[in-house]
Amino acid sequence: MDLVTSLRQAGAARGDLVGLVVSPAQGLGVATAERAWPVAGAGLTALAADVGRADEVLRPRWAVWSGQTAARLMAAGGVRLATCWDIAAAHRLLFGGWRADPGWAWARVRGLDTQTLPADGPLDLFEMSGPDDGDDDDPVAPDGYLRPEWVSGGWADRADRLARWAELARTLAGLQEAALAALPGRPMALPTARSESTAELLCAELSADGLPMDRALAEQVLASFIGPRPRSDTEAVAARAARDAAVFRHLPAGVTADLRSPAQVKSLLARIGVDVPDTRAWRLRELRDTHPLVGALLEWRKAERIATTYGYAWLDESLGADGRLRGAWTGSDGAAGRMTASAGLHNMPAAMRRAVVAADGHVFVRADLGQIEPRVLAAVSGDQALVAAARADDLYAPVAAQLGVDRPTAKVAVLGAMYGQTTGFGAQALRRLNAAYPVAMAYLDTADRAGRAGRDLRTYGGRLIVLTPSEPRSPSRAAAYGRYARNAMIQGAAAELFKMWAVTVRARCGHLDARVVLCLHDELLVHCPAAHGEDVSRIVEDGLREATQRWAPGSGVRFISDTTIVRCWSDAKPAPVSPP
């Protein structure tokens, strides 16, 4: 009997939670509300095909211990799941932090004391482990905790255990659903958990698919900054010395220093009459015209960063023979919930975008959310005056008019309010914000006070931001936590909206052979056949409206995206902002 028929007979319907575990050696474990059963192994490709057909025909919400692990196993069989309930992702939403292995997630949702949690094995939830130690075959011990041998892989020892582990996954997912639905004042927690779960599937796909990159162009970009690829250690040392010499030529003969030492760089600047408290890049940029050395230092830093972090070794390690740059993606950074990636994908120098080129016959649809943070503030705070400003193409123009200042000052004031900057440029306008947008400012101030006092917070979508101190904090440290809290409430909510948008685009454009290949802060990059570029562009724009309606129903806030179709990532230029 195929899986579709079995699921139907077991009462599964669209959107129902269905427990799913996969063992390449043993087969599947499947569980509905009515029963749980194993499906004998017939090779990973055949197992994935069975799950894929069930996913397409019935569209359940697969309850899995790790969405990324399940996605990798399914992808190995050529299948991409539409949705899931990721127990680890939901746990991080509910309880904050990063740890989310099965034993820990079970204990937390059941209210068990984690101080007496039994030790378990590796956190790779789908790996095999050693033989059963003879304990009871129930994964839940008499004390209520999960048995360590099950958590560390013993669930895959036999087919009947697969069914029990899938049943437990479904049970835990149901408990998490109930806990999220019961969060006071957070009606979007449950939709957010579903979106976060699907984002984990997307992360697995991003890791597998990679970002298209032209190796020859990438080497050209590197050579323009750090010279040609060195053929020996001697050439590498010479190239480094040449970069340093470009700075030292602006100093008296014989004067040298370690340019990688901030203290020595500060002393160098003092020799030419540039006295600075530190050598941060933004401070040096303000002094660029005071002496040629400052500009040379800034150029040196750019080249040095590329040489040490994004040089030829990085290219060799991260760029595959198929012309795809790959890193490991995660759906949440464990704090405010932003997506992150390794291999420099989230911090790639702008110059390297010239080498990010679509495959032959393909294009990128690049979309960048505009003024996302103040628009999110309007939505989550419900400040109707700010909501009205957020209906404009340029939110800062009506804010500037309301405050009686120019647009740059208004922008600095709004961003300063969200980042906790209350002095300096824009401070007077910042004070006017309290009168013009009292509800939004009160929302930020409440978060600030909670951070200072060490009280945990929850984002708009229900993610716990842990602020409870583990040790006493000084007044300055407490103030820093206040600034962090006010920003985390906005950054976290923006991440929730962004991921809901990303998974919506993923769902809507897959039939056009389009794939999301990069999620960079507030920017999406979708790779698709050139013939489908216009269609995918419309889907991206429509997907933002759909995600907004789901994420902030009835808020009245308008979210905008600068969407372009390009062959090369660097060809995407930000849309000009009209002056007020």
Descriptive tags:
580 residues; alpha+beta; 22 helices; globular; disordered C terminus
Question: Can you walk through the features of this model?
Answer:
A five-stranded mixed β-sheet has the order 3-2-1-4-5. Strands 13-14-10-15 form a four-stranded antiparallel β-sheet. Helices cover 49% and strands 11% of the residues. It has 580 residues and is an alpha+beta fold. The N and C termini lie far apart (67 Å). The longest helix has 35 residues, at 475-509. Strand 4, helix 3 and strand 5 (84-86) form a beta-alpha-beta unit. The chain has 22 helices and 15 strands.
Number of strands: 15
Shape: globular
Average pLDDT reading: 91
Strand order of the largest sheet: 3-2-1-4-5
Whole-angstrom Rg:
26 Å
The helix content is: 40-55%
Instruction: Output the structural class.
Output: alpha+beta
Q: Can you give me a brief rundown of this structure?
A:
The chain has helices spanning 3-9, 44-58, 67-76, 87-95, 102-109, 148-151, 159-181, 189-209, 215-226, 233-248, 262-271, 281-286, 292-309, 312-318, 372-381, 384-389, 396-403, 407-419, 427-436, 438-453, 475-509, 533-551, and strands at residues 17-23, 27-31, 36-40, 61-64, 84-86, 211-212, 324-325, 329-330, 340-341, 362-370, 457-458, 464-465, 515-520, 523-529, 560-566. With 580 residues, the protein is an alpha+beta fold. The strands form 5 sheets. It has a 5-stranded mixed beta sheet with strand order 3-2-1-4-5.
